[in-house]
Amino acid sequence: MSEVITIGEPMIMFVADAAGDLKNVQHFTRYIAGAEVNVSVGVTRLGHQVSLISEVGNDPFGAYIRQFLEREGIETEAVAISGDHPTGFQLKSKTEVDDPEVVYFRKGSAASRLNAESIERFDFSGAKLLHLTGIFPALSAETFDATLKLIEKARENHLLITFDPNLRPTLWSDEATMVKRINQLAGRCDVVLPGFREGKRLTGRTTREAIADFYLSNGAKTVIIKLGSTGAYCKRQQPDGQVAETLVPSFRVDHVVDTVGAGDGFAVGVITGLLEALPDKKILERANAIGAIQVQHISDNEALPSREQLAAFIEKTAHQTPENQANDGLQAI
């Protein structure tokens, strides 16, 4: 296995070529989507090896996804091909004002059939970090069990586990189930990465400090909260029992094109920063920078930077100030 392992559903994404309601769109441009795919692309571009566990259909969409992953240098040995279930896809509207409209066609997809038995065959030797999101376990009862099994195997092999709630309410049967399951998973992971609005929804707490305390008291060692235009906040339980807090401002963004994928870019910064043992301040700075880069492009992953591009962005781009934070179009994702 590579040094980073993740599991998720790669999908074909058709993005509207013109703004407006999806029902009125006549032409789309094809991309690749999926939170875990986005993270895999970003981590690989920053020089780390990634293995993606997934399944695609034996169809043109599945073939294109495997080609894309291989071209990006992502290990595909754990991407199975199903002859019985199709590859999922989605439609996304074009907008520069609010979050885009996204419609999924993934029910009964190949990836949603992965189960705990699917995980047993993987050897985690050599891996250092497992990254999970709340999307894959929401696809089916089988994928939730597969996620639990993956956490179990990661613990057996002493991997660091990062978890981004990445809420998708439409995938869950109801709000209460979503909150219960997501918090159950978060409590079994080392680093939890909620957005501020997600954290309020999941914990009932209303401040970043209280949200962080909720997850620290439930098993997490570090909580990093995405604060949108304000930046990012980290609260870490140190080995000596002391708690360290870090707040880093975001980077200025003059023109927001698409906010989808910003959280995945943020996770890329955290994961690579952890692998490189960077101090918390530098981890948050990197995560903020990649998130800021992402919102300036329509694709969920095409703009994810190389190490050189990331360094250039950080060097030339100013941090947010209180005067322009409220007017940049970004929300606390």
Helix and strand pattern: EEEHEHEEEHEHEHEHHEEEHHHH
- Helix fraction, binned, reads 25-40%
What is the subunit organization of this protein? single chain
Q: State the distance separating the first and last CA atoms.
A: 32 Å
CATH-scheme architecture = 3-Layer(aba) Sandwich
Verbal overview:
- With 333 residues, this protein is of the alpha/beta class.
- The protein has helices at residues 35-45, 60-71, 116-120, 141-156, 175-186, 196-203, 208-217, 262-275, 280-294, 307-316, 322-325, and strands at residues 4-7, 11-19, 28-33, 50-57, 79-82, 89-94, 102-105, 129-133, 160-164, 191-192, 222-226, 232-237, 243-248.
- It contains eleven helices and 13 strands.
- The model is unreliable at 325-333 (pLDDT under 50).
- α1 packs across α8 (262-275) and α8 (262-275) packs antiparallel against α9.
- It is globular.
- The protein has a single domain (6-325), classed as 3-Layer(aba) Sandwich (UDP-N-acetylmuramoyl-L-alanine:D-glutamate ligase), CATH 3.40.1190.20.
- Keywords: ATP-binding, Kinase, Nucleotide-binding, Transferase.
- Belongs to the carbohydrate kinase PfkB family.
What tags apply to this protein structure?
single chain; 333 residues; alpha/beta; UDP-N-acetylmuramoyl-L-alanine:D-glutamate ligase; 4-stranded mixed sheet; 35% helix; globular; PfkB_dom; kinase activity
